[in-house]
Amino acid sequence: MRMFLDILLIVTSLLLVLMVLLHRAKGGGLSSLFGGGTQSALSGSTVAEKNLNRITIFTGLVWFIAILGIGLEIKFA
């Protein structure tokens, strides 16, 4: 079980990094420092962006559950 949770944690961590990098910048953070802030503020979110948000949230929840599972296994093993 521990090996499964470790692999799940690694895979979901990599997926989260990838998905966060795929998101479009929404405003004045570090992305605007490097020229990412030139996009129109009136452009609405697309269906693909909404789906990316949902997948990112789901992946984050799986990541969190894997962390909890590893912690519980360490505590009670």
Automatic annotation (TrEMBL):
Biological processes, Gene Ontology terms: intracellular protein transmembrane transport; protein secretion; protein transport by the Sec complex
Keyword terms: Cell membrane, Membrane, Protein transport, Translocation, Transmembrane, Transmembrane helix, Transport
A GO cellular component entry from the record: plasma membrane
Main localization (coarse): membrane
Pfam (any one): SecG
Source superkingdom: Bacteria
Entry keyword Transmembrane helix: yes
Transmembrane segments: 51-72
Topology class, membrane: Multi-pass membrane protein
One of the record's GO molecular function terms: protein-transporting ATPase activity
Keyword field contains Calcium: no
Subcellular location per the Swiss-Prot or TrEMBL entry: Cell membrane
Family assignment from sequence similarity: Belongs to the SecG family.
Function: Involved in protein export. Participates in an early event of protein translocation.
Name assigned to this protein: Protein-export membrane protein SecG
